Structure formats: structure tokens, C-alpha cells
Amino acid sequence: MKDSDETNSKCIEGEWRWIESVGGIGGWTITPQTEGYEQTLKIEKNTYKEYINDSLAYTSDYTIGESSDTQIGTESKNFIKIEKGTLAFTCINNQLILFDQCYDCYKHTFIRR
Fold this sequence. Notes:
mainly beta, Lipocalin, 10 strands, about 10% helix
């Protein structure tokens, strides 16, 4: 594992609470209040889990990496690859920001629990 992969792993590991998602062709903002549910991510050493209202909704092994090019929708080169796709990510203070990898997709903001 490269040093940057180890740093990125430490950055994303933990329990995260969803705050908002912004994007789509109309630039919409969705939140737990507008959608009527809470979402939590639990990212452990080898496992990525998504919970909706405390019920496990999705689980996957994951790998993290660093691209030679910036990822779509961000200046980040970091990504996490799970079974259902690849997300660019950046960590800022106690926030984890995930970016869907397509044009007009969403940027998802989480805070550490």
C-alpha cells in the first residue's frame, strides 16, 4: 500500500452521518429532512456499509486509490471503488465528501459521528 493510500484509508474510515447531497441536472439539494430518512456510512478497514434509518441497506468490500487525473466533479484524485461503482472523495476536517462519477451527478456531504 502506498503512503497516500494509507493516509486516505485513515481519512475515510469511521462512521459518517449524511448532511446533504447537491447535484443533478437542476442542481438540486436533498437532505435527510427533504427525503424523510437518515443515512449513515460505516467504513471499516475492508468493508463499506450504508445504513438507512439504522437498517443495513448495502455492504461491499472496497479499495481506495489515487488517479493520475482529477475525478469528475472535483479536483480530487482520490477514489473509493465499491461493487456498485466508483466515488471520488475528499476529507476536510470532520467532513467526508463523496462525488458520483458522472456528469450532472451528486456531491454527497457527510460528517463524522
